[in-house]
Amino acid sequence: MEQFYEAIDLLKGMVAIPSYSREENQVADFLEKNFRLLGYNPQREGNNVWIQAAGYDALKPTILLNSHIDTVKPVSGWTVNPFLPEEDDNGKITGLGSNDAGASVVSLFTAFRLLIEKQQPYNLIFLASCEEEVSGREGIEKALTKLPPVDFAVVGEPTGMQPAVAEKGLMVLDCTVRGKSGHAARNEGENAILKAIPVIEWFSTYRFPKQSEFLGAVKMSVTIIQSGTQHNVVPDACVFTVDVRTNECYSNEQLFELIKEHVSCEVEARSFRLNSSHTPAGHPFLKRAGLLERIPFGSPTLSDQALMNFPSVKIGPGDSARSHSADEYIYVHEIREAIDLYVRLLDGLRL
């Protein structure tokens, strides 16, 4: 299949270009140029590049195929050049972004090419978006404002081609407990650290009653604590950060209000944007996935699904454990299998 070999070449070209979050302009240029060379008419907003299949019909539902082009920066343990995508005799391609999520980008693009060879009962859009790794506002959030209304999305992330039907959301809280300063040598002041201990304990032990079938309970973790100026001064403030991983039983706003009812400190949320997502088992895509012996699961990691206000499923080639690690890699056969499975899942699908 000629398109498969073009997909591998496209992946190697992507890996060879540094594309850290908010610095994706060169890889976006590369993709836009190559899409045009292959005969397509891509559109672009910032570093988001997409192709809309011809013959758009407003009476049909629209399916979005989406994955991201940005990467994290390479960790220190790399033993090879992260921007030199070597392929070994076993078809293993090593390089930064090969697994997360270059393989998904090229697999979804190739599936798009194959699906539009015949008329489908839906409109189809392929989108390679930016700023996913930092949940940036210039990524899919901006791109979606330029697209027609979307009814369903396939989000390419390394899941071993098993469907993530639910994904935890994220809310980061900045909390402040106030005390009163004084000299540590005398019985003065109110120690903000001591006042903060029971509040931190609450965040560590409290369990919200509603649990998700696929995502389990809401998880709260105190991850940063800052207090005090010097050893002989009783601290008058203790500031700490809480990482809250949400399930679909609560919106971020609901959880924020519930938390404020329980704790006696100042609480500020950095954002409510990144909500949990969930697609019901009866969705036509998931019914077909079941027929193809795909096993649904809930994902604890965040993706651009959090910024989609329509049903979506996260599914793609590779393994999440390889992401953000040294000597990241993908196998060629994983890409071939992903293309085949994407087409089988989507060809003729009726929403």
Structure write-up:
With 351 residues, this protein is α+β, with helices and mostly antiparallel strands. The protein is built from 8 helices and 18 strands. The strands form 5 sheets. Strands 1-2-6-3-7-17 form a 6-stranded mixed beta sheet. The protein has a 4-stranded antiparallel beta sheet with strand order 11-13-9-14. It is elongated, with a radius of gyration of 23 Å.
Task: Kindly name the structural category.
Answer: alpha+beta
Main beta sheet, described? 6 strands, mixed
Number of strands: 18
The pLDDT mean sits at: 97
List the total number of helices. 8
Distance between the termini: 29 Å
Could you tell me the radius of gyration in angstroms?
23 Å
Provide the helix percentage. 25-40%
Main β-sheet, spatial strand arrangement: 1-2-6-3-7-17
Flag low-confidence runs.
none
Assign an overall shape: elongated
Order of helices and strands: HHEEEEEHEHEEEEHEEEHEEHEEEH
| Range of strand content | 15-25%
